[in-house]
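Second attempt. The first submission of G-protein coupled receptors family 3 profile domain-containing protein had a stray character pasted in from the spreadsheet, which I only caught after the job came back as garbage. Lesson logged: always re-copy from the clean sequence file. Corrected sequence (925 aa) follows.
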Amino acid sequence: MRKANNDSMSPPRAMTLGAGGREPVHSARRPPTPPKHTLIRLLHSLCIIRDITLTRTLNYNFPKHPLVKLKENFRTSVYFVVKTLVQLFVVAKCTVRDKPWVILLLCCFSTCEAKRDDDLHIGGIFPMEGEGGWQGGQACMPAAELALADVNARSDLLSGFKLLLHSNDSKCEPGLGASVMYNLLYNPPQKLLLLAGCSTVCTTVAEAAKMWNLMVLCYGASSPALSDRARFPTLFRTHPSATVHNPTRIKLMQKFGWSRIAILQQAEEVFISTVEDLEAHCKMTGIEIVTRQSFLSDPSDAVRNLRRQDARVIVGLFYVVAARRVLCEVYKHKLYGKSYVWFFIGWYEDNWFETNLEREGIECTAEEMREAAEGHLTTEALMWNQNSNQTTISGMTSEDFRFRLNEALREAGYDIDREKFPEGYQEAPLAYDAVWAVALAFNKTMEKLQKSGLSLKNFTYTNKKIADDIYEAINSTSFLGVSGLVAFSSQGDRIALTQIEQLYDNHYVKLGYYDTQADNLTWLERERWVGGKVPPDRTVVVNELRTVSLPLFACMTALCIAGILAAIALIVFNIIHRQRRVIQWSHPACNTVMLCGCCVCFGSAIALGVDGRWVQPNHFSGLCAARAWLLAMGFSMAYGAMFTKVWRVHRHTTKPKPESKKRMHGWKLYTMVGGLLIVDVAILTAWQIRDPLQRRVEIFPLEAPYHNDDDVHIRPELEHCESEHNAVWLGVMYGYKGLVLVFGLFLAYETRSVKVRSINDSRYVGMSIYNVVVLCLITAPVTLVIASQQDAAFAFVSLAIVFCCFLSMALIFIPKVIEVIRHPTDRAESSRGSGSGSAPADEERYRELVKENEELQKLIAQKEERIRVLKQKLAEREAAAADGVTQGTIVADLVTATSDYGTSTNYTRSSRASVSDLDFSESYL
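This time the job returned cleanly.
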């Protein structure tokens, strides 16, 4: 192993020609011959000076250097050239008379030239110290030194050349990394390639190195931004891109059914680029990113926001120092355990969560950190060859390399036996293989250059041809290293498998591997979860459909069925006794229509209680239509029949007398019911076609679970039948029904004390209309208010329907049933037969009696007025002491008036047909 470190910008000091820095004293006649060892040292110094001079001349032979620096270097080069010529003149003068010394001089020059030509120099930028970032150079630099020793020990590589590494510390800071790069380039010897680590430093170095045609090989950089070939045309890396983790994360999320994640990232370019790529993958696979939190140094606020957003599956992207701060905040906010899953980066050390806690000011103990870290998942590209018995290109297995690396780290002072590994231990194989990739690429380039008579020593920072040859050699490199198969994609990225691990019992356990290119997940079924089950990706929200209480629905259904049976029984009763006068004068057909309407209303009440418990969502729109049609049609039939009766009574009281004598045909009584039904059909048909009722779900706020489970919340849902313009259609329907109710109420009030023989239950019909109107006016607005309370709304509406129907049936039919029970037979009705002409004859007789009664009342009024006048005259005559003739006249007048009254009375009595006719007349006056 050969290693040089030239980082100083100051030119080397010139070697002295004699002791004390002065020239030796010469005799007057002949200069003394210098000793042999002094001359050799002098020639050796001259060779070094020449190398430095030529190197400086070559290193600064490019157009992109600052003018001031170019002038300074030019002056320095001239100085060394002049001084070298003087010294050569002295040497020639000393050896002109002695040819062996000339031969010795030539040999020394040959030795110096050979020494200069057999070294190939590369620059190394290793992050060794610093705060924050990745200090992976602590383990990667010893691995690179091991690789240099192994490469230089191989006689079949580089044709006798030696590979030298010139390195310095970048502290994972891009500014310092740029300074180290410039020191390596400005100081001799000339570098053929740069090794770099830490994504931020690699970004800066790779973006600038293209100006010098330098290849950059990164052993520890995962930033996805480095895959941009247009921005980094000369970059390769043995460390896979961080984006190789994202397909693996997506695969795991699909495997465990997680579709909702959160992202916590450190504000660094490598993690920003990784998150952007992860978001793209999530969008393609339909995974929701509920929140994306970032932080610079203090993650407390970001972690707190994760809890507020109910994040359960969290992808963390940050360096290991920040990871320890994050994990402590995770413990403080209780974002760990059976309800949470954390994805961390896999290239941290195995015990990263319990080291350097005091030095970094972490406020959590090691035990608390272990508790918070339990169960988290890591994804990392495979950095160690998984076949521990497979011999790699270096002749070692991965276990052999691990043993050698551990020995080197022990010598460096690391306590490997107690598992206190330096940072970058996981990436050490990548640094080892990076040096091998450089050696193999240089070897291939040398073979190609030899054909054209060139060598790598001809490389300059302006020689693009040799740079392109090196690029092609690296791009085509493929070998088996201690980190696995080393090959590069067209973007210069390492092609590698991804390893999945989980931490439990304070140890990482391999769960499987994922091949991104083949989309093949090899799963070992070793996962273990806190709580014994896969954590959910969110607080589990159980959608609970609010349905009508089953006991309430059963009770109301029983009442409705009883009402339907009662209505059917009354229909049978109405048909059986339709010939009886008590039924005939109540219009049995209208009563049958009313009872059928009540049955339909009872059915609509049952339909109101049928909900999602019994009906599938795709059939719910049919149920909504059934509810509307049943209730509207049933109401029109039941209420329309009663409305027709009260309308007829009102006509009898308002029509002119000749028209009232006309017979009312039955079909006219049903016209109004039919008209109401036609209007209902028209409105409901238009509603159904233009804007049908659909299932709409009302969602209520989350509720606490019935049992003590933090992962479950209840989201109540309630089904409604609504359309897009539901308020408009309800307004039309309510307006139409409201007008009918108000008009019926008005007619019932106007005829409240009227008795019509042809409608013997008009008063009961009026009472039924009152009840229907009052209940409808109360039920309609209250239902709109309590619509979100399914039990209350159903109970209120169904009870209103049941009460209206039962009350109407009771008021209209109970008196008839009682009358039939009391008088099983009706002889008068039987003697007249079952013809339809009996009722019109009685009606005509009743009208004649009413007319005769009115005439008699007018005659009585006339006679009483005449008697009053006569009595007044009699009083006046008595006061004047009238004679007897006058008194006789008055008496005759009184007799005449009396006889007239008696005649009228006799006529009235003689005009009545029978005693039964008299009773009938008295009952309807």
